[in-house]
Each structure stands twice: as structure tokens, then as C-alpha cells.
Amino acid sequence: MDNRSLPFYFNLTMFMNIGHQRYPAFVFCLLLYSFIVSANLLIICIISREQTLHEPMYIFIAFLSVNSVYGSTGFFPRFLMDLLSDSHLISRPLCFTQIFVVYTYASYEMTILSIMAYDRYVAVCHPLHYHRKMTSKTVYTLAFFAWASPACNLTVTIYMIVRLPLCGNNIHKVYCASWNIVKLSCVTDAVNSIVAMLGAVIVAFLPFAFILYTYLRIVVACWKKSSEVKGKVLQSCLPHVISFMIYSITSFSDTALSRQNLDEINPFVAVILSLEFVVIPPFLNPLVYGLKLPEIRRHIVKILCLKHQTKMNVCRPLPTESALIL
Fold first, then answer.
1. What's the predicted TM-score (pTM) here?
2. What was the pLDDT predicted at 263?
């Protein structure tokens, strides 16, 4: 393998020349990034500070917010720099670091949603055994595997990709993506293809199938229950279902896009579709959980009212609603 097969820089070719419009785009993306970080940090602070929210469901929501900050920070700073730059070269080490962060973020999102689905399944289908099954030890064991498994899988995948001899350095993307680098390979390696396929099945499809199975069991368990019980289950599970649907749709858009001929797609549309999964879930998750779950909403309103010192009739406390365990 000679040095020509290991380019030290990759060129991100999907950036369009938008002239002076780059400055409004930069400001918009900076504000978007600031909101994502601020909103998710607010959720994390509320859950960590309030003793009443130290329940499995809320701890997993905090993990989801941590992952949103992690993924956004792994993407936005470099993207903001590229918006203002005429050159979009990225060094090889930095490129593979970005791949690790962005893809572990995507994997963490799915594994965290999986353990959240399991938590709701136990709460609805085995309510009498909930506290026995969802102990602190269980919660942190599940969290450990949710974080460790994708990291190990991505480490192996990136190691396989790093060893590939490459016949080019143009990545048709606005960020480094593993599949785009694999397509630059000078050789067809069956082992790498098999490893990549198995990794995709383990990290994506197995959690996806598990989430669908658990929510199907919840629907079956509630089918003949009273409307009051169904309402409580819906209130408890709806934010998780919304987050799961948002992430599934946005990640599918990026996956489908990577298999298309991008020369036949409008460049602006291609950029939007490729960014959805790393922008939309971190942006919407704090809104979904902050607005849909009464306990979190109550503490957000309390903080906002104290901050702005509004009148008591505007900031009167919302009725306390205990965390739904069901």
C-alpha cells in the first residue's frame, strides 16, 4: 500500500457556493445549535436537580438529552466553519473522529430509545413488578450497554475503514460519512462488507425491531382496558413514540440518500436530507418532553417564571402530577 492510497485530507464536495447568503445561513445555524445545547442542558439540569424526577423514565430522558448535546457538538462547530470557508478540506484524523462521533450519536439514540421502550413495557405490562425489575442497578446496567455497545461496534468499523486503500479523496457530503469513504476504496473487500453489514444490523435493525415489539405488546396489553387507563398509558408513552418516529424518519432519509445518485437530486434538497437526523431529533426532543410530560413542564415553567419575575397570576404553579409509572 503506497502513500498515494492514504490521502491526508478529504474534500467535502456537497457544500454549495451561496455567496453572501453564507452569513445568514451561518447565523441561523449558530442560533439553531445554541438552542439545541441550551434546551437539552435545561432538561438535564432539571432532571438532575429535582429529586422527584430521579425515576428511570426521566433518567433515560436525561441520557437522550446528553446524547443530543454530544451529537450536535460533534457536527455543528465544523459545519459552521465550513459555511464561512471557501475550502472544505478536512484532515484524515479529524474526518474519522467526526465519523465516530456522528455515528455513535446515531447509534446511542437508537439504543437509548430501546431501553426507554423497555422501561415503558415493564411499567405497563408488569406494573406490580416495576420497582423490582427497574432498580438503580438495572437502570445503570442498561445505560452502560446502551453507551458501550455502539462505541465498540464503531471502533471496529472505523478500524476496518482506516485500512482501506483509497483511490480518491472527494466525499460527496457536508460531513464525513463512513459509507462515502468505503465507496472510495480501490479494492472490493468481502470481509469489510460483511462486517459493515453485521454492524448495521446489530446497531440499527435489532433495536428498531425491539422497539416495535415492545410498543406492540403495550398496545395489546391496553386493548381491553378502560379509557382512563388508556389515557394514562398514552400520556406516558406518547413522547417516546414521537421521538422514535422522528428519529426513524430522519435516519431513513439519510440512509436512502446515501444509496442514490446525488447528481440527479437537487443539491439543496440533498443537503437538507443528509442533515435531518443530526439536527431534527436534538432540536425536537427537548420540546417533546418539555411540553408533553407534566413533571418536566412544571419545573420549566417554574424556572422561567423565577427568571423573568413575572406576576404571580401568570406564574402560578401548575398542579402537581406524579410521574406516571403505570
1. 0.84
2. 65
